[in-house]
Inverse folding.
C-alpha cells in the first residue's frame, strides 16, 4: 500500500545544531507540506512544494528550509535549532492542490522534536 | 485570505449523547471545508469534506457536517458518542490553489 513515512519519530537535539527531518511518500503526489503542531495553535504551515524543484514558504517558515529534488521526498531542515522549535512536526501529501478538495491530504505519523 | 475558528477548545459529552463541534470559517473564494480527527499520538485522518456539492456531508464513523453559507459555518455532529470518538478534531479550510488553514482544534472528551 502507498504511504507517507516520517523519520525519526522522536528526536532530541541541542540548541544550535542543524537537524533534518525526513518525509517520504510513495503515492507519487506532486504536492507535499510540512506543518508544526503546538498546543493552542493547531497545525501551522512551515513550507510546501507543488513539484520537483518547487518550494514555498508557509506561515511559520523562519529558521526552516526544504528542498525537493525528487517527487517522493521533502526533507525539512532546521538550520540552527532553537528551543522555540520544540514541537511535533507533520508531513503531508496530496494528489491535487488541497484547497480544491478533489483529493485527500494524507498525513504522516509525526516527528516529536525536542530542542534542549 | 482564509481563516477558521473553532468555537470550543474542549467539549465533554457522555457516551450515547449527541456530539456538536462548532466551526466558523472565512474565505475570499468558494471554500473547500474539511474535518480531520487526531487520536492521541497519531497522525491526522480525514473525517469528511465539503467541496460545493451537497451541503450535508456524511463522513466516517457516523459523523456529519452541514455547510451553511449564510452563517459561514461547518459544524460537525454525531447522533450518539462512542468512547472511541475521544480525540482532537480540526476544522480546515482551503480554496483553489491555496494551502489548507487549520483551526486550533477541539478536544472531545467522552465519559462513560
Amino acid at each position: 500500500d502507498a504511504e507517507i513515512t516520517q523519520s525519526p519519530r522522536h528526536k532530541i537535539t541541542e540548541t544550535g545544531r542543524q537537524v533534518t527531518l525526513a518525509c517520504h511518500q510513495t503515492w507519487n503526489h506532486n504536492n507535499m507540506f510540512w506543518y508544526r503542531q503546538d498546543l493552542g495553535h493547531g497545525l501551522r504551515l512551515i513550507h510546501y512544494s507543488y513539484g520537483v524543484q518547487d518550494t514555498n514558504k508557509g506561515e511559520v517558515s523562519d529558521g526552516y528550509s526544504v528542498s525537493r529534488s525528487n517527487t517522493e521526498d521533502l526533507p525539512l531542515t532546521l538550520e540552527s535549532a532553537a528551543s522555540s522549535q520544540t514541537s511535533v512536526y507533520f508531513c503531508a501529501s496530496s494528489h491535487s492542490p488541497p484547497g480544491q478538495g478533489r483529493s485527500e491530504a494524507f498525513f504522516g505519523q509525526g516527528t516529536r522534536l525536542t530542542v534542549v | 485570505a482564509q481563516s477558521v475558528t473553532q468555537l470550543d477548545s474542549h467539549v465533554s459529552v457522555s457516551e450515547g449523547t449527541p456530539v456538536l463541534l462548532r466551526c466558523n470559517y472565512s474565505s475570499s473564494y468558494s471554500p473547500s471545508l474539511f474535518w480531520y480527527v487526531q487520536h492521541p499520538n497519531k497522525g491526522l485522518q480525514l473525517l469528511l469534506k465539503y467541496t460545493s456539492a451537497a451541503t450535508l456531508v456524511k463522513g466516517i464513523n457516523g459523523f456529519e457536517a452541514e455547510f451553511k453559507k449564510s452563517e459561514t459555518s461547518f459544524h460537525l455532529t454525531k447522533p450518539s458518542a462512542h468512547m472511541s470518538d475521544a480525540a482532537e478534531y480540526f476544522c480546515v479550510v482551503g480554496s483553489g490553489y491555496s494551502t489548507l488553514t487549520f483551526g486550533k482544534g477541539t478536544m472531545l472528551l467522552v465519559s462513560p
In short: The radius of gyration of chain B is 13 Å. Chain B has a mean pLDDT of 92. The first strand of chain B starts at residue 2 and ends at 6.
